[in-house]
Amino acid sequence: MAAPGQQQRTLAVCAALVLLAFALRVAGMQRQDLWGDEAFSVRFSAQALPQIVRPGVETHPPLYHALLHYWMAVAGNRPLAVRYLSVLTGTLLVATCCKLGRSLFLRPVGVTTAAIASVSAFGIYYSQEARMYALAALLCALATLLLLRLQARPRQTGRLWTWLLAVTLALFTHYYCALVWLAHLFLLAARRSLRSRLWLGILPGAALAVWVLAQRAFLGERAGLRWQAWDWAGSRAIWLDAPRALLAGATLPPAQAWPAYGLLAVALWGVWQVRHTTQRWLALCVLLPLLGAWLLAPVMPFFNVRFLIVALPAFWVLLAAGVQAAPRGLRPLLLAAVLCINLLGLYHYHFTAAFAKGGYGRLLDTVRAQAQAGDGLLLAHSAQSALYEYYGPVALPLYKLAWDFPWTDARSTALLDTAANAHTRLWLLSFGDAQAYDPQRSFQQGLSQRAFLAWHGDFTDATLDLFVRGDTRPNRARSATFAGQLRLDAFGLSADQLPAGSSLQVATRWQALAAPAANYTLFTHLLGADGSLVAQVDGQPQGGLRPTGSWPVGAQITERVALQLPRTMQPGSYAVQVGWYRLDTLQRLAVDGSGGLQNSVELGSVVVTAP
């Protein structure tokens, strides 16, 4: 037994690490908008409690949403408030795993576990999300700790019932917790002193089975056989990519993620070094979730590594055991490696747009900032309903496309016609996987035929397009060829003089003289007398619906865009130019006959007056 002074120092270090964990989980938690599932959690949890716990209305078990229901009643539903519940459970998870490491191994493993858990990019990511994942991991860790205490004193009935309660709560938080519960049953069956309690250990699973039976029709609609989930890509996602993400975070670019396999090797080394059966059993709390995820993959709608957060506590402890099993001089270097790779993952999570959780709030803020009288807003697909309810409404007439009927229904076209006839400008908000509800991108095609694309923006899981109604046609002949592939045949401008703050419609007609070598981006720019860029629309033809790489020889394509003139621009003469470039290299195509000196064609000039 350690001296009292040493115990106090250990507790002080653990407390400091838990405070660090809390600080890292609070930092930047409002930087990102809620994403779709979080907005659903908020809307679903705002219902009356009987609606929340009623089977057949939500895929996941009801415990988290029931807790969030009462949490929002006190704290409100702003992003900071709804995510704070996960911050607290994520912080408690670190403290619980510290105790778990100390219970299974020597005291240094507990401290090392707390150090690893506090900086875990994966743990922090889901501790800043208004979903059930941090709570599921906490309950699995707590149930594992209580089972170990029951093993130490199997005759204490109170410990048995607290373990049963923790397991039941875990099972009613996320279905994957059942895979950790199965690992617990293995330990009960293996220990003679606990074997007689095995029938009690089955009771939480029986309770979950009753819930699943009540949910069977609802869950059956989402399940289906997908044998390709067992191919190389699906198997790699579970057996290689998931462990790497658990140990080093899922917000690392692939080129920077390979050192995470070194941490996986350290964790495996920790398993190899231990001799005690219970210590080795902890590896089963990782192996069974991985194996279960792989076996269930063909019948699950999809797999996501976040489902395996139930294995995270055991992963942390095994990694800490591997660090402590290394030579004394190597331990600080291994801990530094854990720190560096997880901090790198946190950097990308907070500051790299590719790993942003959501951008719906910023999207609607863009609409609010740029909307004008007479605008209309079109929402494509009902999957964004919870997000729009949370971040909306926008003070514009609203049209819901493919919500009450399929996008192929004639009523969708009629609704599109109604909106296009009623408004000068239309904002189209496309959300989620368009391949699932509009694979032909019929809404973009329909608007491109009725109006001019004026602006396009990409947000997380969503795009925003502004269309301006007009009838300008390419009625002025002009011939210019780019790189022997694309020829400009004609163009049209909506006006030769217009006020600042209005829209200049530009129509161009192009022909493919040869099969284009790539999907080129067309730019339409308005330039001042000094060459400064005043307004622009860049994009692949017809909003990406007709990429140049798909043009056959002889194809003729008309592109229609609208340049939005800032209200603050100075009166004067401005030039309209068009050209092409490769998006991956930003290299422009040269105009034939210019000796490579020109890479754009001037269509003419317009005079801008005061607004």
Please give the count of helices: 26
Mean pLDDT, all residues: 91
- Count the beta strands: 14
Outline: elongated
- Distance N terminus to C terminus? 83 Å
Fraction of helical residues: 40-55%
Summarize the structure.
This protein is α+β, with helices and mostly antiparallel strands. It has helices spanning 4-26, 36-45, 49-52, 63-75, 79-104, 107-119, 121-127, 133-152, 157-171, 177-190, 192-195, 198-201, 203-214, 216-222, 232-248, 254-257, 260-273, 277-281, 284-296, 312-325, 331-351, 360-370, 385-391, 410-422, 434-437, 442-450, and strands at 375-380, 398-401, 425-431, 451-459, 462-469, 476-482, 486-493, 497-499, 503-512, 521-527, 533-539, 556-564, 572-581, 601-609. The radius of gyration is 30 Å and the shape is elongated.
